[in-house]
Amino acid sequence: MIQNHTAGAAIVVFHEIYGKNQHISRVCEQYHNLGYDVYCPDLLDGAEAFPYSRQQEAYEHFKANIGFDVFENYVQLLSKLRPKYRSIVLIGYSVGATIAWRCSASGLCDGMVGYYGSRIRDYPEVKPKCPTLLIFAENEPNFDPRNLARTLGHKKYTSIVTLGGNHGFCDPYTINYTPSSAAKAELLTDEFLDRIKAGS
Fold it and tell me: pLDDT tens, 140-169?
């Protein structure tokens, strides 16, 4: 956890397959500076983050050792945090977005933002119990985000936005970084957080 502000609002950040790397540290610091208590569960259990050049190895490690059922552990975390905060928002990136998506049905959080959670397509049965914003890249090699948007768009509480770029477009440390789309996504997230805070 980043330093406690006792502000009554918390953000739980779920990282990508690479671990708690420079990008995720930057995200956590950003929300800490906005006055949130920030929690970032470490899916790698303290192991060094994978460099982007070892993407396939990182993905194989995730599949073999972590998997998406780990969300149950984070539902337990949310149950411990719930009495402490007026509002709790989940923010996830890639596999972290899918984990956050599954947690959104727990009823223990007040909002969820998922960035390019491509594996959300494997869990269309999830019914979020809080406002949910899903942000996808237009260009995904393994599925069509527009089709997924049509599948999920009818769900209560769920808003879906597709922005130009490739998977990972919000990460300034990757070759897929797309500044214009990253700026739009950040604005959408800030507006979303403001609405959650106003309603809490």
Answer: 988 999 999 899 988 999 999 999 999 999
Q: Are 137 and 149 in contact (CB under 8 A)?
A: no
Amino acid (one-letter) located at 25: S
CA distance 126 to 123: 6
- Fill in the DSSP letter of residue 36: -
Query: How many angstroms separate the CA atoms of 112 and 91, rounded?
Result: 6
DSSP annotation of 108 reads -
Q: Are 162 and 137 in contact (CB under 8 A)?
A: yes
- Answer yes or no: are the C-beta atoms of 78 and 88 closer than 8 Å: yes
3-state secondary structure at position 158: strand
Which value, to the nearest 10 degrees, does the dihedral of the CA atoms of residues 53, 92, 67, 77 take? 130
User: How far are the Cα atoms of 2, 32, 99, 125, 147 from residue 155, in angstroms, in the given order?
Assistant: 33, 31, 18, 10, 14
Could you give phi then psi for residue 169, rounded to 5 degrees? -65, -15
pLDDT given at position 4: 60
Write down the pTM of the prediction: 0.95
In contact, 12 and 89? CB cutoff 8 Å: yes
